[in-house]
Design a protein that fits this description.
This protein is an alpha+beta fold. 46% of the residues lie in helices and 19% in strands. The protein has 18 helices and 18 strands. The strands form 4 sheets. Strands 3-2-1-6-5-4 form a 6-stranded antiparallel β-sheet, sandwiched between helices. Pfam families: GAF, HATPase_c, HisKA.
């Protein structure tokens, strides 16, 4: 120790019977920087070493700090410190150390010290005793000390266990080789003070972390009631999860309708985060399927991670997004930043509790978005249904008036047609008026067809069902349209399957439905074009296709082709024929669909169920076959 009068009192004020020169309040003020919650790990460690080499502290000539690495399970060299020759007080020494560079008062010794890593089994002498018991110890330096101390030197060791777990060792040396009771008390006082400072720092860090995580949850809760869209909310949740846990990156997936994960948001260094997110897909699918949190501390041992993805990760936590027992997606964060050896790069229970809370809120956001989407679609469907109902009511009124008008107009049209045909027969081949009469006849035929279609919209009564051959009905309709097919030079591709069974149906109405669809195809196809007719059995249905390669009218919407009065055909019609065809097929329990495929601009497919037909074809005795005959219970004697 320095023989000069000290500038501040020793830690053990009663040692040697010397009088206390300062009050306890004064000593607390000098030691206050050790308990400054704004200090980080490095500042606390520098101040502890400055106190260890202070004449009124442990009085070491030089001191070294070894810190326990949580991830490597070894004591790693951290910081070297040499005592000064000045007469600074403890308060001044701590303040100077707090501002000191991170490599201490001897950067070269610190650099060499940081190359050392010791397991507990490597410790000897006072180091082993101090580390094993978390106490202070002194004795001769082990021979294997290397440059940590001089040979045959008296050393002291202090086991640090801040926060209830091993933190590290402070090892110092006394050049005079004398271990006195005063030094023993100074070592123990320094150990208690160091552990108290580390406990305070750890509690402050924990409070700071909990405060940050609570603020993140509050911000996400505010976002839930804000006008943010779903994509913005997902990106916000991903950012908050990464910032509050201090990770290098993360990713967020939602579950598609078919159950597969879909990447929605990623956080981390630009360029590689989306690629890494895609590489984690197999692991995400497993977490979503199981609905359980997965924490991976050794990515290389995880079979669901590819070698490239495992090489990029040091730790990973993946939490499912579960609401009402349904898994909607998963959130992953990886590579928790560890700025100090005493900090683990893995995820502790506090981090996992925060991530689960955030994922619970995020799952509610997704569920709310799903319900809102369903409500929006339901409202849209309601509005569409209301519009269709209004249109149906309007069309019903229009149809009734049109039916009366058509009935009243058919006789005058027939008279006009008859007189025009008579006049046409009286004209010679070279008569210029003959062309005008042919135009009149074509328009009369078109108007008669239009009136007939309008009358069909108001078909009364129920179908007259009989067992019929669907292929025969198709052949009959093609024969009736034969003249138009020839006149327009249409190439007919016909493929009628012999496997089509007889069906119970109204032959007149089904024939009319097919004829109307065929007429629409003839209107659409260009001269010399093609029409394909095909019938086949598909499981429990008979499917009839009518396809053409004509070009559709500009602006025509396929889903409105069956809406009467909505879109005119190429011949100037109002699509009543298609509406009538759809109505007839629906009456028989079938459907009419239209699509475009390859070289065929329109393919009309209408299906008729076979099951209902087979039930209709059973005669009365067969229908009662499953019932017991009551007469069998009373056989004649």
């Amino acid at each position: 120790m320095d023989s000069d009068k000290p500038a501040s009192p020793p830690l053990d004020a009663a040692a040697g019977g010397r009088r206390v020169q300062r009050s306890r309040a004064g000593r607390a003020i000098e030691l206050a920087p050790l308990f400054d919650r704004r200090s980080d790990h490095g500042a606390i460690e520098r101040m502890l070493l400055a106190l260890a080499v202070h004449p009124h502290g442990a009085g070491f000539e030089r001191a070294h700090l070894l810190v326990w690495s949580v991830d490597h399970a070894m004591l790693e060299g951290r910081l070297a410190w040499h005592g000064g020759r000045g007469r600074r007080s403890i308060g001044e020494a701590l303040a100077r150390a707090q501002r000191q560079a991170s490599d201490g008062t001897d950067p070269e010794s610190t650099r060499r010290l940081r190359s050392i890593a010791l397991t507990p089994a490597d410790l000897e002498g006072p180091l082993a005793a101090a580390w094993a018991g978390g106490t202070s110890a002194a004795g001769p330096a082990p021979a294997s000390g290397g440059y940590l101390w001089k040979p045959e030197t008296l050393i002291g060791a202090i086991g640090l266990d801040g926060g209830g777990r091993g933190y590290g060792l402070i090892v110092g040396e006394w050049s005079d080789g004398t271990y006195t009771p005063q030094r023993a008390r100074a070592l123990e006082a320094l150990r208690r003070l160091a552990n108290a400072a580390l406990d305070t720092h750890r509690a402050a860090e924990e409070l700071r972390r909990l405060s940050q995580q609570g603020a993140a949850l509050a911000e996400l809760a505010r976002a839930m009631v804000s006008p943010l869209n779903l994509a913005e909310a997902l990106n916000l949740a991903m950012r908050l999860a990464a910032q509050a846990t201090g990770v290098r990156g993360g990713a967020l997936w939602t579950r598609t309708k078919d159950g597969a994960p879909e990447l929605q948001a990623a956080h981390g260094p630009a360029g590689g985060r989306e690629r890494l997110g895609r590489q984690l897909q197999p692991l995400v699918a497993s977490v979503i399927e199981r609905g359980r949190t997965m924490v991976i501390d050794r990515p290389g041992d995880e079979p669901l991670l590819g070698p490239e993805a495992a090489a990029q990760l040091t730790s990973l936590a993946m939490i499912p997004l579960v609401v009402h027992g349904r898994t909607l997606g998963a959130l992953a964060v990886f590579d928790r930043a560890a700025f100090h050896p005493a900090e683990s790069a893995g995820f502790d229970p506090v981090d996992l509790a925060f991530l689960r809370s955030l994922c619970d809120q995020l799952a509610l956001v997704l569920e709310h978005a799903r319900v809102s989407d369903l409500q929006r679609h339901a409202e849209q469907a309601r509005q569409d249904l209301q519009r269709r109902l209004s249109r149906s009511e309007r069309l019903a009124a229009v149809g009734e008036r049109a039916a009366r008008a058509a009935h009243e107009a058919r006789n005058p049209l027939a008279s006009i047609g008859a007189f025009a045909r008579r006049a046409l027969r009286q004209r010679g081949e070279g008569d210029p008026g003959r062309e005008y009469l042919e135009v009149v006849l074509r328009e009369v035929d078109r108007l008669e067809l239009l009136m007939q279609q309008q009358s069909q919209v108001m078909l009364p009564g129920s179908p007259r069902l009989k067992v019929e051959n669907a292929n025969a009905l198709i052949q009959s309709a093609l024969q009736q349209a034969g003249e138009r097919l020839v006149r327009r030079r249409v190439r007919l591709l016909k493929k009628l399957s012999p496997d089509v069974p007889p069906l119970v149906l109204d032959a007149e109405r089904i024939g009319r439905a097919f004829a109307n669809i065929l007429a629409h195809a003839l209107d659409a196809v260009s001269p010399g074009g093609r029409i394909r007719i095909e019938s086949r059995r598909v499981q429990h249905h008979v499917v009839i296709d009518v396809a053409h390669d004509g070009s559709g009218s500009p602006g025509v919407l396929i889903d409105q082709l069956f809406v009467p009065f909505e879109i005119g055909s190429q011949e100037g019609g109002v699509n009543l024929g298609l509406a009538v065809a759809q109505q007839i097929v629906h009456e028989h329990g079938g459907e009419v669909r239209v699509r475009a495929e390859g070289e065929w601009s329109s393919i009309f497919s209408f299906t008729l169920p076979i099951g209902d037909n087979e039930d209709r074809r059973r005669i009365g005795r067969d229908r009662r076959a499953t019932r017991h005959d009551r007469r069998e219970r009373f056989p004649s004697a």
